[in-house]
Design a protein that fits this description.
It is a single chain. By secondary structure, this protein is an alpha+beta fold. Helices cover 26% and strands 29% of the residues. The strands form eleven sheets. Strands 27-30-31-37-36-35-34 form a seven-stranded mixed sheet, with helices on both faces. Helix 6 (239-247) packs across helix 7 and helix 7 packs antiparallel against helix 10.
Length: 803
């Protein structure tokens, strides 16, 4: 909502710097996007009078103009605008001036002729293309005849007015009007407001009820009013009205359309004008659309209406307008229109929002119907618009208003105590101070001791409960004036639940393994949602998705990770190792809400460790990925996981995929993505895993016990054993640990030999044994005794011979 401070001055006396005013609004009411003047940055742009024009001798479209700019001598200016005429007042940028985008205008020659300035269009001095009147969109703008040559153009065009662009929140729809904003500022600065009210003069002989009949379903339109203006002449609006519109970001069209837009900005009341002569049967009915009904709207699009959903204004020929959203082309006001049927209404907000969304017709009118309008001023806004159209179009109002429905807005009464206000705000306000704030806001207040009974007018439909009143007191009193102390409370130490601890440990373990965390969307498309699934499930689709790529709740994490891998690969990042921990959504066909399950997944491609000057690179393969999964499970206390070849995943390589079981329970899979899927994502060979983290959290675990490192020295023994080639290293190591004594800490194989000095069926295995105690320094005798005992055991079990 673009608010002109000059327009505000009509309603409330605010002699305040616009920048300070904008800052006050932002701290008290709604956010301010910017504060500006269209004249900011411009220089030496004046009124010029075109005394004469003649064709340029070396151009078929340029003209040589003599322009009076209030100086002793006229300026010669070259101009190529197609609508340029002599004896017109125009916008002139003098030599040395600055126009839009900080462009400097200099004296120059154009095809051999001197040009001492520039005749400008509105766009060239900073007007947005969307607000320039269509007749001047492709040419220069003509100023009014009373403009004096040499005067600055800014006041003539409203460019000297300060504009405050408000970002109005949905709860403050009352500020989507100049009168609502003026009321708010009057309360903030404790100033009176001065609103003018229309004096209706019905000069036409006919009664409105004799010319038109209207009916309405009050559930669709609680208020629906019509006035008729006869003998209207369509023409350009006066400059004062055009200035107010383009400063508010609205393009002037003609006097009828401009008045409806002006009243929309002034009262916040959307209006619609029909060409009375095009209304079939001279009867309008507010109803829901019928089966198969269509409407060609003002943008010349044929729209298929939703039966029983869209509210339409219909005549005997069918739908004539889409209520609260856009009018129909058949009954639109045109240059041949002489009689206007002017509509003011209140429509069902929910249906208007659904209609605007479905047909993609969000507008200033639909926004106000969705958020709410002041129902007390609907008739007044209609009267003001009708009188202004009659005045500007030389028309006459017929007698009376047609009322198909007229809801009587009710005041809302809210009770609150002074103690409650001070308790919530931490203030020590008095009864008089709070009462003054309520009265400044336009509320009626009754005080009994320290209790307030506050009557809220329909103009503030956002207030209905005591908490709303507390917010109003805080705003007007000033957030800066509230105490800065924090509320006192009992502090209790927080802690993570067991599930939260496991989830955080999972993230830490995967990051320590070299993977980076990714966070994907919880929504994807239907096809990707049904890939890599770990259990059968019905899809969960959104009724109103924001885009076609985000229609379905995900049932796997891998699809999102593959999107991330593809994103990186497309940007020349070839080595990618990502993981994601999050929820997937499974649903049975008879369920309304899906079941949320914690999952963790990873995706790896390229090289896991890059090559260095002394070591080659380590490419990612199945075993690297499987090792990461094993590391994760073992670190989480899952020691009994079993990997079984898995061929049931269509999206995975059939020979390079393993299912993961915990006992009889399937908890995930690991392997290579199918080449066809990789080709779809335009990525190279990629390995993935996905685990049901919820099952891992709930599974029994083998706790790891950690012992402090001994501060006492260790003793080592080396031994080489000659054994049969059929003997496995693992069996010998197990024997060492089982019978090596309580001080044996580690057994390391450091050499294997088979050669000329060994028998044909023998091999030599050399081990380093490390002994260490936690509470004392070991003596050789203690180690020797354990060492000899285990050697004897090896000789007895495996026939091992010490070499």
């Amino acid at each position: 909502m673009k608010v002109s401070t000059k327009w505000l001055q009509d309603y409330v006396d605010l002699k305040i710097d616009p920048a300070q005013l904008a800052e006050k609004i932002e701290r008290t009411a709604v956010e301010v996007d910017e504060e500006y003047r269209l004249a900011d940055g411009l220089k030496k742009i004046v009124v010029g009078y075109v005394q004469s024009k003649k064709p340029h001798p070396d151009s078929d479209h340029l003209n040589i103009c003599q322009v009076d700019v209030g100086q002793e001598k006229s300026l010669q200016i070259i101009c190529g605008a197609p609508n340029l005429e002599a004896d017109r007042k125009v916008i002139v940028a003098l030599p040395g001036s600055r126009i839009a985008d900080n462009v400097k205008i200099k004296r120059s020659k154009m095809r051999g002729e001197v040009s001492e300035g520039m005749i400008c269009s509105l766009q060239e001095i900073g007007f947005a293309e969307s607000v320039v009147p269509k007749e001047f969109a492709n040419g220069i703008y003509f100023l009014p005849n009373n403009a004096q040559p040499g005067d600055s153009v800014y006041s003539y065009l409203g460019m000297d007015e300060a504009i405050i662009d408000l970002d109005v929140t949905p709860n403050r729809a009352d500020m989507l009007s100049m009168r609502g904003t003026a009321t708010e500022l009057a309360a903030i600065y404790d100033k009176p407001v001065h609103f003018s009210h229309p004096q209706v003069t019905e000069t036409a002989a006919e009664k409105t009820s004799d010319l038109l009949q209207v009916t309405a379903d009050s559930t669709l339109a609680p208020t629906y009013l019509i006035r008729i203006i006869k003998n209207v002449t369509l023409k350009a609006s006066p400059l004062w009205l055009q200035k107010r519109l383009w400063n508010a970001g609205v393009r002037p069209i003609n006097n009828v359309v401009d008045v409806t837009n002006y009243i929309l900005l002034d009262y916040g009341q959307p209006l619609h004008s029909f060409d009375y002569d095009q209304i079939a049967g001279k009867h309008l009915n507010v109803r829901l659309a019928h089966d198969g009904e269509t409407l060609q709207t003002l943008d010349e699009q044929e729209r298929q209406l939703r039966p029983g959903k869209d509210i339409v204004i219909a005549d005997q020929q069918g739908a004539a307008a889409l209520a609260g959203t856009m009018g129909g082309l058949r009954t639109a006001v045109s240059d041949q229109t002489t009689t206007i049927a002017l509509e003011a209404a209140v429509f069902d907000a929910t249906r208007i929002r659904q209609t605007a969304r479905r047909h993609k017709l969000h507008s200033e009118a639909s926004t106000r119907f969705e958020r709410g309008i002041n129902q007390k001023t609907v008739a007044e806004a209609l009267d003001a618009a009708a009188m202004l159209i009659a005045e500007l179009g030389d028309g006459q109002l017929t007698k009376g208003i047609l009322k198909a429905a007229l809801a009587e807005p009710q005041d809302v009464t809210v009770k609150i105590s002074l103690d409650k206000i001070n308790q919530v705000l931490g203030t020590n306000l008095s009864v008089a101070s709070v009462k003054d704030i309520f009265q400044r806001l336009g509320f009626q207040v009754t005080v009994a001791a320290t209790d307030f009974t506050v009557v809220i007018p329909p103009s503030r439909w956002d207030i209905s409960i005591p908490a709303d009143l507390i917010e109003e007191v805080a705003r007007i009193y000033g957030y800066d004036n509230l105490p800065a102390t924090l509320p006192t409370s009992v502090l209790t130490p927080g802690h993570y639940t067991y599930q939260q601890r496991v989830i955080r440990q999972t993230r830490q373990l995967l990051e320590s393994a070299g993977l980076d965390q990714a966070i994907s969307y919880g929504l994807t498309n239907n096809k990707k949602a049904q890939r890599f699934m770990m259990e059968p499930s019905a899809v969960t689709e959104l009724s109103f998705p924001m885009s076609s790529d985000r229609t379905t709740a995900r049932m796997n994490l891998i699809s999102g990770l593959l999107d991330d891998v593809a994103y990186n690969v497309a940007r020349k990042v070839e080595n990618v190792a990502l993981y994601e921990e999050g929820r997937v959504f499974y649903r049975q066909a008879d369920q309304v809400r899906p079941r949320e399950v914690e999952h963790v997944a990873g995706a790896l491609t390229g090289e896991f460790t890059p090559s260095t000057w002394h070591e080659p690179s380590n490419g990612i393969d199945f075993f690297t990925t499987k090792g990461i999964v094993e590391f994760l499970l073992k670190s989480l206390g899952i020691s009994q996981a079993c990997f079984v070849r898995g061929d049931s995943h269509e999206e995975m390589h059939p020979g390079r995929t393993a299912d993961i079981y915990l006992g009889e329970q399937f908890i995930g899979f690991v392997g290579e993505v199918h080449p066809a899927v990789c080709q779809e994502y335009r990525i190279k060979r990629t390995y993935v895993f996905e685990l049901d983290l919820q099952q891992i959290i709930e599974a029994p675990k083998q706790a790891e016990l950690y012992h402090p490192i001994s501060k006492y020295p260790a003793i080592t023994r080396d031994v080489a054993l000659a054994v049969d080639q059929t003997i496995e290293n693992a069996a010998i190591i197990n024997c060492f640990y089982d019978h090596g004594g309580k001080y044996l800490r580690s057994v390391q194989l450091f050499d294997v030999y088979q050669g000329k000095k060994m028998a044909a069926n023998k091999k030599s295995l050399a081990y380093k044994l490390t002994y260490q105690a936690q509470d004392a320094t070991l003596a050789d005798e203690q180690v020797n005794q354990d060492f000899e005992r285990v050697l004897g055991r090896l000789e007895a079990e495996f026939g091992a011979v010490v070499r």
